[in-house]
Design brief:
Shape: globular
Number of strands: 20
Number of helices: 19
Largest sheet: 6 strands, mixed
Radius of gyration: 31 Å
Strand order of the largest sheet: 5-6-7-3-8-9
Strand content: 15-25%
Helix content: 40-55%
Distance between the termini: 66 Å
Structural class: alpha/beta
Length: about 600
């Protein structure tokens, strides 16, 4: 069933045609990922679909029953509500009561420990996570998400991915997380040069389908060029006949002249030079750091190798960015030292970059302040030529920074850092706001980068492509190291967890087999079994009553994250115990029946 149609939508922004008569039909159950380079018009397209922004032309139609919930790229809150009140803003008291538990569960999953926190005191990342909770809680037929994985740690991304896979409504989302696209979406839409291309597949199959489409387009164009040359020769010779056939050929030739010629998609080139790195790099010696008197991690020592490729992971607030800033020398550790070699030149691509003083400066002047001439592996080029390689057209170069999209600003910031020829790169959440094309080229650049790379990221695909060592920061404990990428890390911690339970499972199976063999011979209760049989009904009833009490407490408790987490843990433990008791009750009841039947015989 079609829940929304958008036909011949056009939109121009600052003399750039973002959307050129594009159309889309959304069906119930569609889970669509929208991709394209920064500045292609993805967020604008979402806003038009949601009714937040108006198209220059075109028609959007939807049934009266179609409700839309939207997650903006940058949420803005101007009130003084607490976070629980904010997610229910505008909702009826009945809705609040019915969805109280669901709201607290989602907020807890998104890392909120205290539901009474004021919205005004939240960071940008916390505001985005609060906006995600609000969007998910609004009953709707179409859920629109603009960069939902930004500011989420890996655990939250996995949870959101699972939630959206089970989501019953339609989803229209912009994300650059390629594993997320692969696992959630059943359709990919690419916005390129004002056009919209639709692929009924996830991200992996989209790559194949796009390559096939482009090959067909260029094959058709080669045929058209051959036909055009022949028709041009015929036109130049001059046709004496003025019959229907000649008119037809002239009209066909004119159509050939006016055709849209497919162009190769622009590509970003990163072949900047790096500075020479000596034998001594960066050494951390018993480094510690606390926040609000709570240790982020135990004393940490590590020697960064010249060709290191390190990924740092952990929950939000665990201290990942803090450790990166300690390495960069931006903040001091509470104890320990950071010894930096004389030849080390650090390039820090920070998560929080401030371009406020540059907003009215032209993009090219921002780059020229570093240098007007840049040395690459191919020789010296101008700042303007370099910017073109980074997909900044001549017109875009002379735009002021405040007229660039968020992704274009971040790409510009990355370019300026790489221009300074660092030999140690520190990247704090580099995948936020960068489009897939930029990320792919950045990954290739890092693969050939001559120095060390240390990256904080929640992007599993990026970590798998870039790093060969993973460090996990966890709740003030020792920083754990794992060899390999993110998938290797997951495999190892899963194996460690299963090792602890496999022995118990083997013992349980052995006991079950022994029990099964003994059942036919067991025709009377032991003293212990008789006592267990007499009391098990009451024990089961007590467990069921406790579980009901906990469920009521979960609905009513609005204290904090720790309290709710403890209740959930206790509920899981009691549920497992109840299952064991029920299995035992079945066995004892069957045994009692056999004993009774034997006595009758």
């Amino acid at each position: 069933m079609i829940i929304l149609s958008a036909e011949k939508i056009s939109k121009t922004y600052t003399d750039k045609k973002l959307l050129n008569e594009v159309s889309i039909f959304l069906n119930d159950g569609d889970k669509i990922g929208i991709i394209g380079v920064n500045g292609a018009g993805k967020s604008t397209f979402l806003k038009i679909i949601a009714g937040v922004e108006t198209a220059d032309s075109g028609v959007i139609s939807k049934p009266a029953t179609t409700k839309i919930s939207i997650l903006p790229q940058t949420p803005v809150y101007e009130n003084n509500l607490n976070i629980l009140e904010q997610v229910f803003e505008g909702a009826s008291s009945e809705t609040r009561e019915a969805m109280d538990y669901e709201a607290k569960n989602i907020l807890t999953r998104l890392g909120f420990r205290d539901f009474t926190l004021s919205v005004k005191g939240l960071s940008g990342g916390e505001r985005k996570r609060l906006a995600i909770a609000s969007a998910l809680l609004i009953p709707c037929e179409l859920l629109i998400l603009d960069e939902p994985t930004n500011h989420l740690d890996s655990e939250m991304v996995v949870w959101l991915e699972s939630y959206l896979k089970r989501y019953s409504g339609a989803i229209l989302m912009i994300t650059h997380d390629r594993y997320f696209l692969d696992n959630v979406s059943n359709r990919i839409i690419e916005i390129e040069n004002g056009n919209l291309f639709s692929y009924p597949s996830n991200y992996s199959n989209y790559l194949l389908a796009k390559a096939e489409r482009e090959e067909m387009e260029f094959a058709t164009e080669r045929k058209n060029q051959s036909l055009y040359r022949r028709e041009l020769e015929w036109i130049k010779r001059g046709a004496r006949a003025r019959g229907t056939k000649s008119k037809y050929r002239i009209e066909a030739f004119e159509k050939l002249e006016e055709r849209d010629i497919p162009t190769q998609a622009s590509s970003i080139e990163m072949n900047l030079m790096s500075s020479r790195l000596g034998k001594k790099t960066i050494e951390l010696i018993n480094v510690t750091k606390s926040y609000n008197e709570k240790p982020l991690f135990k004393p940490f020592s590590y020697m960064v190798l010249r060709d290191a490729r390190i990924g740092i992971i952990g929950r939000n607030g665990s201290g990942k960015s803090t450790l990166l800033k300690i390495i960069a020398g931006l903040i001091n550790p509470d104890s320990g030292t950071v010894d930096v070699g004389e030849t080390v030149k650090i390039g820090f691509f920070s998560q929080e970059y401030d371009l406020s003083k540059w907003l009215n400066v032209r993009a090219i002047d921002y780059i020229r302040e570093v240098s007007g001439q840049i040395v690459t592996s191919e020789g010296t080029i101008s700042a303007s030529q370099l910017m073109e390689r980074f997909l900044f057209s001549p017109a875009l170069q002379y735009n002021t920074i405040n007229r660039l999209s968020g992704g274009e600003q971040r790409r510009l910031f990355l370019l300026r850092i790489l221009m300074e020829a660092p030999n140690v790169l520190l990247l704090d959440e580099p995948t936020n706001d960068l489009d897939i094309k930029t990320l792919s080229v950045l990954e290739d650049y890092l693969e050939n980068f001559g120095g060390a790379v240390i990256v904080v990221s929640h992007d599993r695909y990026f970590l798998d492509k870039v790093v060969d060592t993973v460090f996990e920061i966890c709740d003030g404990e020792e920083i754990s190291g794992y060899v390999g990428g993110y998938s290797d890390y997951i495999e190892k911690i899963t194996a460690n967890k299963s090792t602890n339970t496999s022995a118990k499972q083997d013992n349980y199976k052995a006991e079950k087999k022994t029990e099964a063999r003994e059942k036919p011979k067991q025709l009377k209760f032991t003293f212990k079994e008789k006592a267990e049989f007499d009391s098990i009904d009451k024990e089961i009833a007590d467990l069921e009553e406790k579980l009901k009490s906990l469920e009521t407490q979960m609905l009513q408790d609005s204290s904090n994250y720790e309290g709710l987490t403890l209740i959930i843990a206790e509920k899981d433990m009691l549920s497992a115990l109840l299952s064991e008791k029920m299995e035992r009750w079945i066995y004892l009841t069957e045994l009692a029946e056999k004993i009774e039947n034997k006595s009758v015989e």
